[in-house]
Amino acid sequence: MKIKANLISGRTANQGAHLEAKTHKGYFDACAYCELNSADLEKLGASEGDSLKVTTEFGEVVVFAKANGGNPDGLAFIPMGPWANAVLSPDTHGCGMPGFKGVPAEIEVTDEKPLDMKSLMKKYLED
Amino acid sequence: MPVIKDAVCSLCGSLCDDITVTVEDNKITKIENACILGHSKFVGMFEHDRIETPMIRKDGELVPVSYEEAIEAAAKILVNSKRTLSYGWCSTSCEAISGAIKLAEETGSLIDSTANVCHGPSALAAQEKGSPSASLGVIKNRADVIVFWGCNPVHAHPRHMSRYSSFSKGLFTEKGRKARTMTVIDVRKTDTAKLADKYVEIEQGSDLLLVTALRSIVNGHEDVVPETIAGVPKAEIIELAETLKNGKFVCIFFGMGVTQSRSKYKNGDAMASLISDLNQHTKAVMIGMRGHYNVTGFGQVATWETGFPMAIDFAKGYPYYNPGETGANDLLVREEPDAAIIAAADAGAHFPQKAVRHLARIPVIQIDPYANPTTELADVVIPSAIVGIEAEGTAYRMDAISLHMKKLIDSKFKTDEEIVKDLTVKVRELKRGA
Ligand code: SF4
User: Fold this and answer.
1) Which residue ranges form the domains of chain B, and what is each CATH number?
2) A25, A97, A115, A123: which to substitute to probe chain B, counting the most B Cβ within 10 Å?
3) CA of B363 to nearest chain A CA: how many angstroms apart?
4) Ligand 1: which of B8, B9, B33 to mutate, judged by most atoms within 8 Å of the beta carbon?
5) Check: CATH 3.90.190.20 for A2-126?
6) Contacts of B240 (CB under 8 A, 6+ apart)
7) What is the B213 CA–ligand 1 centroid distance (Å)?
8) pTM score, whole prediction
9) Which stretch of DSSP H or E encloses residue B210?
10) B332 and which of B154, B217, B220, B355 could share a cystine (Cβ 3.0–4.6 Å)?
11) Cα(B191)–Cα(B198) distance, integer angstroms
12) pLDDT in tens, B86-122
């Protein structure tokens, strides 16, 4: 089962608290997840902590599922950071700013596990 | 044991200047008044992954070298590059930023700040329509109607509401939170929205529609507004317009929900027009919720030194500015730079994949106190002292008020200011030799 979602990224207190500790597991826990409301998670058959694959026209990334009752249906949130940026839009619409909010995405449950920060960055060097 | 009062927290754009720091044996042992983000920065510095020594990548691995060797290697990269991108310079002092601009001029580089991925569009909006603003002190003392639009201070600027806005008590707002109406406009019910008197949920990417509808109503053209706009019923928008018009002093704080969503700088542009409209009825201002503690300072220093606040290209020998063409991300996505220097910011973590992919292909010089995703891509790594903790300097708060950051403890690391100076000297030396 896949759902279509509108993907946004943004700051969270935990992400901010790990700004200067990005090699730590705490940063991974603070950023490598995707929030959906429980109805959307239910549609996917996913529980919190399951792996989700988020795919956009710019790439794909595996992150953990998290529930957030504040999200309206079809709105997905990944904290700003390298996991979100694996799939957000590089297009600046001629004004310098990439598309960090409002990227159409498909989300599905996967058996793969999210990559830690170093492994994620390593992929860029191998590309 | 020395207790340092009124230290400035060098983390977010709130730049709280009331932190009490206890230092024992050149170590910070206690922090008072900081939020979780600030606390983590001050106290975490001994636990975090500090870059312990300058490093150069050899056969794929970063190996320790001396400062001199790292500076020389970095200078060589800069001298051999035809198109260098210099990016970041926002978690550092204005003095270092000034040096970085000089280095960019010397090397014909393009220099851009983290505004490229946060409030760059707000700068463009200000150039289009101006930026009717006020200091946070004025907000604290006077603002009775506060709007947070596309921002979430509970998470991103945790002490903002208690020090300067919703909860603060000022001259004409002695009752604090009770003296103010707080509205949150966002696409999801954030923790900030939960504290508001009124939460307006809009469809993601429709900020411009809502601003335009509000303008129509404020200007007496309610009839042209459809029954629902931006996902919000007309009645709710009329109520919001009334709240704004009836305020004695209105402040709209806006964040990346506004600058990064569809219409980007046009959102801020329209918001400035709304503020102008509101000023026909009452007093109204807008303030961007700036993220990095000194991203505002970069804009100030760059503007007085080059005439432009960001995205400044020195390739022609004089400053040229055209965001959309000279933004850091534009440049990387076009695969133009053949080298990059990234300092006091983390492009590896905060740029989209296509830009990061190009960074991975070119020589990257990193200047930073901490290891982060950019380190994984860097070829020369130069560790620096933490400004506001191990080095002093000037920073500008989100409302463009300058504050002096104290040095709290000694450090074995060079400051950003020193590193940039050494690099510039070395570059000149190499150029003369060539
Ligand atoms: S609100 Fe910002 S400046 Fe103030 S203590 Fe928290 S992180 Fe530091």
Assistant:
1) 55-117+293-392+411-433 (3.40.50.740), 120-288 (3.40.228.10)
2) A97
3) 12
4) B9
5) no
6) B183, B198, B200, B214
7) 34
8) 0.95
9) helix B207-218
10) B355
11) 13
12) 999 999 999 999 999 999 999 999 999 999 999 999 9
Q: Could you identify the residue written with the tokens 């312990």?
A: B52
Choose among B204, B264, B371: nearest Cβ to A97.
B264
* B319 torsion bin: left (phi>0), alpha (psi -120 to 50), beta (else): beta
Is residue B352 within 8 A of residue A85, CB to CB? The reply is: yes
Is the shortest distance between the CB of B35 and ligand 1 below 6 Å?
yes
Q: Which two tokens stand for residue B56?
A: 């150069």
DSSP collapsed to 3 states, A74-87: CEEEEECCHHHHCC
For ligand 1, atom 7, the nearest C-alpha belongs to B38
Q: Quote the ligand 1 centre to B88 CA distance (angstroms).
A: 20
If you search the block for the tokens 């109805």, which residue do you land on?
A39
Half-sphere exposure of A122 (CA within 13 A, CB side): 7
Residues 6+ away with beta carbon under 8 Å from A95: B120, B121, B124, B264, B265, B323, B324, B327
